[in-house]
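Q: Could you fold this chain for me?
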Amino acid sequence: MKLYVKQSVFTLGEKFTIKNERGEDMYYVEGSFMSIPKNFSIYDHNHNLVARIEKQLFRFLPHYNIQLSDREVVIRRNFTFFKMEVEILNSNWILQGDFFAHEYSVVSVDHPIMYLSKEWFTWGDSYELNIGDPDDAPLCIAIAVVVDHLLIQQNNN
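A: Sure. Below is the predicted structure, expressed as structure tokens.
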């Protein structure tokens, strides 16, 4: 299953649509505007809430809680000197990749879950998500949103 995230440059509150290969709206993401802590809500095509992301406050390095209907996952940025390293807690998934080349993969112990790549030279941020199991889409989208938010924060520092 391929999904495409296209963020508009001039949106307040970070609202964007996630489309499938046929250009149909599959998911919607709404980010909080001027809210502390920063949070995002992910809705399916029927506007049902499927995931909620909240950045934890008062952390030396960013932590994000991802609340799904059946579980909670935490994404944590680890301390490293030369590259960004991100860990997925409460899950057997591992985020791997090159934060400079914007190519990532999420793998389980025995198989790939998602490939995430940022498209270059586009108006706004654009990502392609290649997800193996459609049931994993809400968590995969949440991981992509967190990766993008981490990259924006890194570029602003």
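A (continued): The radius of gyration is 15 Å.
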